[in-house]
From TrEMBL:
Transmembrane segments: none annotated. The gene is ung. It comes from Pseudotamlana haliotis. Signal peptide: none annotated. Pfam families: UDG. SUPFAM superfamilies: Uracil-DNA glycosylase-like. This is Uracil-DNA glycosylase.
C-alpha cells in the first residue's frame, strides 16, 4: 500500500510508514479489501496525492469519508467518477460555485481537474466498506491524514485550507493560521445547507482572492 503514494510526498511522510499504527492500518485495510467490497478501488486509495504533488499544493479541502456507494469514490474527497450521478453534497458545492463564481454547473462530478491545479482533496479516512459509512474510521487513517495536514502547514506557506462542517473545523488546531488562510463554513450536505450554513459562504472566490493576494494562480473552479 505504501508504494502507491506519489513520490513527491515520500520525503515528508515516509516516517509515518514505519510507525506501529500505520503497520496495523495496512493490515486492517488489506484484510478489509480481501474480505469485503471496499471503496475507492485499491489502486485509487492515494489518488489525492497522485493528482496533487506536494510542491503543487495551493488549496486543501478536507472531507471525512469516501462515498460508500458502488462506482462513486475515486480517491478525491467530494469527487465522483465521470458519468456518476452527483451526490447531494457535491450538488450543493457546484450550486455555490454557480452563484459565487458565475460559472455554469459542470457536467462531470470528477474533481481531478481541481487536483491538477493544486487542490488537495483529502478525506480524513481514505477507505470505507461498501454501504457502511464510517466503517474504516478510528483505524489509523485519521492519524495519518492529521500528519499530512500538519506537514503541509509546517513546510509550506500561504496555503488555503477550506474547512467545511464541524468535523473539518476541528483540524484548525493542526494549522499555523499566521502563515496560511483558513476559510470555514457549514458543510455542503443538505442537512447543513438547508439550515442556511452553506450557501453564500463564497469559499471559492475568497480562496482565489487570497491566492492572488500572495501572487499565486487562481483556481478554475
Amino acid at each position: 500500500m505504501i508504494a502507491e503514494i506519489h513520490h513527491s510526498w515520500l520525503p515528508h511522510l515516509k516516517p509515518e510508514f514505519d510507525k506501529p499504527y500505520f503497520k496495523d492500518l495496512t493490515t486492517f485495510v488489506a484484510s478489509e479489501y480481501e474480505n469485503h467490497q471496499c471503496f475507492p478501488p485499491k489502486e485509487q486509495i492515494f489518488h489525492a496525492f497522485d493528482y496533487c504533488a506536494f510542491d503543487d499544493v495551493q488549496v486543501v479541502i478536507l472531507g471525512q469519508d469516501p462515498y460508500h456507494g458502488v462506482g462513486q469514490a475515486n480517491g478525491l474527497c467530494f469527487s465522483v467518477n465521470d458519468g456518476v450521478k452527483h451526490p447531494p453534497s457535491l450538488v450543493n458545492i457546484f450550486k455555490e460555485i454557480e452563484t459565487d463564481m458565475d460559472e455554469a454547473y459542470p457536467i462531470t462530478g470528477n474533481l481531478e481537474r481541481w487536483a491538477e491545479q493544486g487542490v488537495l482533496l483529502l478525506n480524513a479516512t481514505l477507505t470505507v466498506r461498501a454501504h457502511e459509512a464510517g466503517s474504516h474510521q478510528k483505524q489509523g487513517w485519521e492519524t495519518f491524514t492529521d500528519t499530512v495536514i500538519k506537514t503541509i502547514s509546517d513546510k509550506k506557506e500561504n496555503i488555503v485550507f477550506l474547512l467545511w462542517g464541524g468535523y473539518a473545523k476541528k483540524k484548525v488546531k493542526l494549522i499555523d493560521v499566521e502563515k496560511h488562510k483558513v476559510l470555514t463554513s457549514g458543510h455542503p450536505s443538505p442537512l447543513s445547507a438547508n439550515r442556511g450554513y452553506w450557501f453564500g459562504n463564497k469559499s471559492f472566490s475568497k480562496a482565489n482572492y487570497y491566492l492572488n493576494e500572495v501572487d499565486k494562480t487562481s483556481i478554475q473552479w
